[in-house]
Amino acid sequence: MAKSVLVIGGGPAGLGAARILGKLGIPTILVEKEDRLGGNPILNHYHTLIPRKLKPEQVLGPYIKEVESNPNVQVKLKTELTACEGEPGSYKVTLSNGETHEVGAIVVAKGFEHFDPRRKGELGYGLYPDVITNLELEQMFSREGRLYRPSNGQLPKRVAFVFCVGSRDRQLGVTNVHCCRYGCALSGLQAMEIKQHYPDVDVFCYYMDVRTYGTWEYPFYWAPQEQYGVRYVRGRIAGITYSPADGRLRVKHEDTIVQRPAEVPMDLVVLVLGMEPSAGTKKVAKILGLAQDPDSKFLVPSEESGSNIISNKPGIFIAGACKGPIDIESSLAEGEAAGAEAAAFVGAKVTV
Amino acid sequence: MDVSGDWNLIILPRVINDYDLDFAKEVMSLPEGKTMIQCYQCSYCTASCPVHNYWDERYNSRHFIHLARLGLIDELQKRADVMWRCVSCHKCTHRCPKGVLVEEVLKAILKTMAKKGLIDEYPSKKFDKFFTESVLEYGRIEDGELLFGWIEKQGYNVVKDPILKKPIPFLGETPEWLKQLVMKPIKSMNISFLVLNAKHMLFHPRTKNWNKFKQVLRKVVQEEGGLT
Ligand SMILES: Cc1cc2nc3c(=O)[nH]c(=O)nc-3n(C[C@H](O)[C@H](O)[C@H](O)COP(=O)(O)OP(=O)(O)OC[C@H]3O[C@@H](n4cnc5c(N)ncnc54)[C@H](O)[C@@H]3O)c2cc1C
Ligand code: SF4
Ligand code: SF4
Ligand code: SF4
Q1: What's the whole-model pTM score?
Q2: Ligand 3: distance of its center to the CA of A219 in Å?
Q3: Average pLDDT over every residue of A84-109
Q4: Burial, A114: exposed, middle or buried (Cβ in 10 Å; 0-12, 13-18, 19+)?
Q5: How much distance in Å is there from the Cα of A280 to the middle of ligand 3?
Q6: Which CATH number is A23's domain given?
Q7: Domain presence at residue A352
Q8: Per-residue pLDDT tens digits for A131-149
Q9: Which positions in chain A touch B73 (Cβ < 8 Å)?
């Protein structure tokens, strides 16, 4: 039986897997299609992370360092899996750089992609410069360190967060019915960051439900409201328009508590993007024959297993956002669990 | 707005065009209004409120807070006739899962509306003033005098005694609801209680040494804004 393990995807989940495999002394190949490790939080320059308010480099930096410096782990950047043959315990894999390897087990951690808000035309993204995504707001903070309206470079007086853009929406098809899980909490954090630096800016969150589940309730829902005066208004934004008269945007919605239509002026509108399975996730499902949710196309675990990292194929383990929306801590933990399962699968004898 | 195209069906636009956030700021700048910010609209308070449940469902503490926080003034004004009906039972405050001092917040909203001239002085506020005056003057209240003095303020023609110029109960004009309300218990009261009441009406009992104390109290209450 081949004793090495292939990890596909160098985001939080893949890093978690490669790190534990390397630590356990198992020869590991980590393939990542981009030119650096870290996945979406690093590649897309997230600013501050929920729930611990650390930078992506602080959370993932130590993992990246450990993986890159462990002699048991070969990191192959700009590389993808192109084919796989063989059977559990000895898979023959072909990579896009032409190499072939025999591996005993595979960890799939290909992650997610951000929803493209142009698909919701009524929200005016791409049409009005002051309609931005929450990802762009992260980048505005991390790259430029200030808040401004792209249309004129000035500080907005009012900012609106529009929850659930590309999530919980059958209009987009059965693919986008799931909840993004991180959006409500990240908006709470971003709103607080705005208020910390610009206390006079009024911030509004337009929601259907506020899903700051578990221990996130206080720090990302109550605190924005109670400590920073962020206002939550119940109603899904159904349209964003621009008024040339005052140069401001209008968020069109029904305030469902007042039961009246509303078109309220805003200076900056932030769309809270949903998560979709990455193209890589869909591709690898085909190559490896992994089960997918028929609607969302996220990978689904084996029906027989109680654990969600066990795939329908023996010797193939799945971790992180390729299975659906998830946070970074859990992605790391799932990656580590999947790595440990893979180690056990290749029959590693671990001496500590 | 004309919706028919030939101006035979005109409706008023119902669209909310903006928030008045200064209003909310003013409410929250009052000591009793500070906790308004904590509300997450669960309606535990409204579900517990006797006024909402048994008198008028338009009295809705949760809703008032939402309206005040966004500064939806016209919606608040629509409810001005019921907003002062709170009986101060404090069920709302004791039950709110977010620690909002609901009863106090509602008073802060009313106060702000009155201050901004958005409502007339509401009747319960007038009563509060009258009540406070009575306490400040005597160090205690006297039920009969308070009630009929209040009725006089409402515009009823009450009969007063010639010497002390105090209203004599039930001799002058009396609102019908009060007659009905009082007749039942009066029939079952004993004579000496009625005599005592009448005596108190004429010779208002005072707290001992009240005169000195009342000056201090009046000053303190005034400084705290309790007389406005
Ligand atoms: C705007 C936004 C903000 C967020 N903020 C937070 C936050 O503050 N805190 C938090 O906990 N979570 C946050 N999340 C969620 C977080 O991004 C995910 O939990 C995390 O990135 C999932 O890690 P992953 O490794 O499963 O996937 P990814 O981060 O998507 O990593 C997958 C990796 O696989 C690579 N890959 C894809 N296809 C292939 C292929 N074919 N071959 C090889 N490699 C491939 C990708 O290039 C990528 O590097 C946020 C999400 C969004 C959308
Ligand atoms: S986490 Fe919040 S923003 Fe994201 S889909 Fe769920 S409810 Fe909407
Ligand atoms: S009980 Fe408290 S949190 Fe709930 S609606 Fe009333 S004031 Fe708001
Ligand atoms: S204090 Fe007023 S608002 Fe609160 S429950 Fe009692 S009557 Fe209702």
Answers
A1: 0.87
A2: 19
A3: 96
A4: middle
A5: 46
A6: 3.50.50.60
A7: no
A8: 999 999 999 999 999 999 9
A9: none
